[in-house]
Amino acid sequence: MSADTGINSPGRAQVGLKTARTDKWWLAPLRIGVILGFFVVYATIRIFMNKWYWVNDYHYLTPLYSPCINEGCSPGSSHLGTWFPKFPVFIPYSIITFAVLAGFRGTCYYYRKAGYRSLFFAPAACAVPEPHKSYTGERKFPLIALNLHRYFFYGALVFGILNVYDGVLAFHGKDGGFGFGLGTLIIWINLVMLWLYTLSCHACRHIVGGRLKNFSKHPLRYRYWTFVSKLNPKHGTFAMASLFTVILTDFYIMALSAGWFSDLRFFN
Amino acid sequence: MTYKGKFRVWRGDAEGGDLQDYEVEVNEGEVVLDVIHRLQATQAPDMAVRWNCKAGKCGSCSAEINGMPKLMCMCRMNTFDEDEVVTVTPMRTFPVIRDLVTDVSYNYTKAREVKAFTPPADLKPGEYRMQQVDVERSQEFRKCIECFLCQNTCHVIRDHEENKESFSGPRFLMRIAELDMHPLDAADRQHQAQDDHGLGFCNITKCCTEVCPEHIKITDNALIPMKERVADRKYDPIVWLGNKIRRRA
Amino acid sequence: MTELERHTYDVVVIGAGGAGLRAAIEAREQGKRTAIVCKSLFGKAHTVMAEGGCAAAMGNANSNDNWQVHYRDTMRGGKFLNNWRMAELHAQEAPDRVWELETYGALFDRTPDGRISQRNFGGHSYPRLAHVGDRTGLELIRTLQQKIVSLQQEDFEATGDYEANLKVYAECTVTELLKDGDAISGAFGYWRESGRFILFDAPAVILATGGVGKSFKVTSNSWEYTGDGHALAMRAGATLINMEFIQFHPTGMVWPPSVKGILVTESVRGDGGVLKNSEGKRFMFEYVPDVFRAQYAETEEEADRWYKDADNNRRPPELLPRDEVARAINSEVKAGRGTPHGGVFLDVSSRLPAEEIKRRLPSMHHQFKELADVDITAEPMEVGPTCHYVMGGVEVEPDTASSVVPGLFAAGEVAGGMHGSNRLGGNSLSDLLVFGRRAGMGAALYVDSLAERPKIAEADIDAAAADALAPFELEGGENPYTIHQELQQSMNDLVGIIRKEEEMEQALGRLSEFRGRIAKMTVEGHRQFNPGWHLALDLRNMLTVSECVAKAALLRQESRGGHTRDDFPGMNAEWRKKLLVCGLNADGSVNVDEKQQIPMREDLLELFEVDELKKYLTEEELPA
């Protein structure tokens, strides 16, 4: 920050301290920053692997690769069929999935807060000066595109349904009939978290009823809105929790697929 | 339970000033404002401080305590250790007048620029009918006591003086949301919010919500819903296309 | 010549609480250039502290309600000492004033059919208080503030200047009213921020400065309540009435010490809260006075039934008028049945589910949680009486709010008469609106009637400036904070809830001693935002007002409403006919004269049963 703007602007109290905060205000943004950084690195590596996303014995498909729709996909994993020829090696099989889901999270109001605070220090914490010379917010390209969050929400809904389909398929035993194991359980925990995250979304809250001026004329939509409004305050918690469960699910399936260890089976 | 508390209070005016150290008696059950008053009565009779109700209802005694924007009357002394130095400074987003008193006229200027409630033309006094569920959202925002702590903590203006011109701050964007959600208000608030009051500056980092002494969910309930309403009107390509086609037809 | 900035207006309103803002709105709508001058920031006035609601007989909650019932309740609450014309106008016009607020954008809580919801309150026969949770005062002040903004926006459209016809001078204190002959010619004051002087040249001044609570130690009032308007009016030659009547709100916080006095809204009791002593007994049943015996429940069972079925049961005695409840609490504490911190218990936690308490009393829940670390959904509150409201004030003409000084008007708490000897909860907010508007109209009419604007004499300006700077002149005198604390202590101890002749005489002795000390006190520092100086100037007003209270209280030899004499415990119908009128002598001392009340108009008298009137009126006043 330059010497004569922000809290150093002429006329304001010249306190001399950048911040008088005595608590560990840097801890929360640091922690979130590390988590986000880890996820970005992990996800980048994972999507370029183009392998270890499918466990054929139990029909486990990692959500990072669902749906797999090119001819390079492992046999059995492309249950929506193959729509494209085999992707060249430098294109991730999950490019569409990833674009939509990363887009959903990237434009999400919670992740925006987390990212601005942890990665851009704008601001890192309340009443702590940010290091930037100027600030224009979300008014200009590219950040103005964040207003498209609702479309990513629609997309996330579609992928959420696909994931449920994957989850049902994951009740698959080695002998071809019904079965379930720890992997199935992890997949379903992840599904619950993903849906809580998706439904508690601010755009969702707006679409189901928030946009109305008079709730009393739309009792059903008011009920939807009330339901989403109950979830919404925990949107941040669901966002981080689902991030963990996605990584966990993906890692577990990767490990099974790579044969690092085998699934704990409860039934068949 | 009485002890000598260590205080550092910023004394000065627009020309300059510094943090001055005081040792002052602190009694059980007191808040920071009590201690500041004791300083006034015993050691610094000309220490300027703005206050009024002493019960967290008027929003006058806003300041920064250990760097966090707070109401001095709502900051209990038992939240500090007895040997902890408590630093009290004026709000650092507004020009200082003297000591802990700042010039908050920015807020009144912005308040005046928000188009007033526009009542429906056909209703006379006494004929207003509104359902409780329809007024509740706006009622939450009307709990605002205008302490301006949200304005003070918002980095858009705290860290960038030049944005004061085009950004009205969380308090008044919330006021626009309040009017937009008022069941009988008849004005267009969405364009106003984005074009005249700088809603687009907000990057929802939520410090306004964090410091609100009334615990109003400014970001989740006012600013983000308002951003979504603006998106409806300005940024949704399907809505845009729909409007275009409708206008053609 | 004194250096100062000068402004010319048609109407100057002093005070930006509910009454001041409503008056300014009216004056501006009548086409008058209007200034609002207030000691605090715009929108911080003490009106925000009003919690329960605004009484208006709209009949939304109970269709039996109408202005006559409201009128009767108001007169009973004030023990028939009220100015009946004011009570009549108030009861008749309050509903219109509330509905008007909705057109300004107010959002009251609603009934199921979408109208304004109304709640029960002490002394009101029906649910009557329009409210927003328990932050009604804030809603009112914000609504009026936003209406002012909307008028300024209209002016901006027309002239390009927001402040062309209506301007707020915030953090500005008026120290003197100026006159040309008998009539008001302007007001003199200073900017708190810079200490610089400011002069308003205006033929009409509306006082809306609120009350006098800061003369007492335990008070719900903020620092602004230093009786400025009362003292300004007296110095300008106007008279005050009913100054002996001070309302002690029965339920102020008693712990922790820093918030002692801060109000606990009556809605806690209206919504089911009960008062208990340290023995766990609901003691209010013991304290129902004879005049109210018929309207109040005698058993806990009946009282509890009332919350569900108000038509067929009598009210719980916790909802007696405020003076009765305050005295009862005082007696319990004196009898040794008080709480550890010298109050009684107010319990709502055992009466309503936690969620319901949070919904109905959000700001009380918040206030106790944040200020006292007490969760009112889980434990009882400790409460005791706190100085809350002065019924007395400037003697005004009911229809126009005009004082005896031409050009000087008063509305709201600073005006006297409306509430008689005791104000009902909820009648304050409606009073502000009804008489704020009337003062605005009265001032506008007065300005129109003038053939010539009164002029300000330069010598008066110099004198006002010299008075304001006097505390800087002396060295080695006392600190104003010390004198203020002693004044508050004296008033609290000697002219408090229960009064005795010798104590009040003692108080008058101390007050004259304070007069000498105040003349010699010293203020350190310079004029720029100097709280010591501000207090020194306010202290003079508090002294004048305290003298009025003590002298009038000493003269009135009966107990009535907000005036309880240990040595004269009963109500006396002869005294009901008399008003005590305070004025200022040439030497600055206070004189008090008796004045006969104007008898109530016959049609209003007929609204009461003769049996009831017998409790208040003398034999010859009763209708034939």
Automatic annotation (TrEMBL), chain A:
It comes from the Bacteria. Keywords: Membrane, Transmembrane, Transmembrane helix. The chain crosses the membrane at residues 28-49, 90-111, 151-171, 177-197, 238-261. This is Succinate dehydrogenase. The lineage of its organism: Bacteria, Bacillati, Actinomycetota, Actinomycetes, Propionibacteriales.
TrEMBL record, chain B:
The keyword Iron-sulfur applies. InterPro entries: 2Fe-2S_ferredoxin-like_sf, 2Fe-2S_ferredoxin-type, 2Fe2S_fd_BS, 4Fe4S_Fe-S-bd, Beta-grasp_dom_sf, Helical_ferredxn, SDH/FRD_Iron-Sulfur, Succ_DH/fum_Rdtase_Fe-S. One of its GO terms (molecular function) is electron transfer activity. Its cofactor is [3Fe-4S] cluster; [2Fe-2S] cluster; [4Fe-4S] cluster. Belongs to the succinate dehydrogenase/fumarate reductase iron-sulfur protein family. The keyword Iron applies. This is Succinate dehydrogenase / fumarate reductase iron-sulfur subunit. It comes from Kribbella sandramycini. One of its GO terms (biological process) is tricarboxylic acid cycle. Its EC number is 1.3.5.1, 1.3.5.4.
Automatic annotation (TrEMBL), chain C:
Residues 10-429 form the FAD-dependent oxidoreductase 2 FAD-binding domain. It comes from the Bacteria. InterPro entries: FAD-dep_OxRdtase_2_FAD-bd (IPR003953), FAD/NAD-bd_sf (IPR036188), Fum_R/Succ_DH_flav-like_C_sf (IPR037099), Fum_Rdtase/Succ_DH_flav-like_C (IPR015939), SdhA/FrdA/AprA (IPR030664), Succ_DH/fumarate_Rdtase_cat_sf (IPR027477). Coiled coil: none annotated. GO terms for molecular function: steroid dehydrogenase activity, acting on the CH-CH group of donors; succinate dehydrogenase (quinone) activity. Its cofactor is FAD. The keyword ATP-binding does not apply. The keyword Oxidoreductase applies. The active site is at 322 (proton acceptor). Residues 484-594 form the Fumarate reductase/succinate dehydrogenase flavoprotein-like C-terminal domain. Keywords: FAD, Flavoprotein, Oxidoreductase. Its EC number is 1.3.5.1, 1.3.5.4. Transmembrane segments: none annotated. PANTHER family: SUCCINATE DEHYDROGENASE 2 FLAVOPROTEIN SUBUNIT, SUCCINATE DEHYDROGENASE [UBIQUINONE] FLAVOPROTEIN SUBUNIT, MITOCHONDRIAL. This is Fumarate reductase/succinate dehydrogenase flavoprotein subunit. It comes from Kribbella sandramycini.
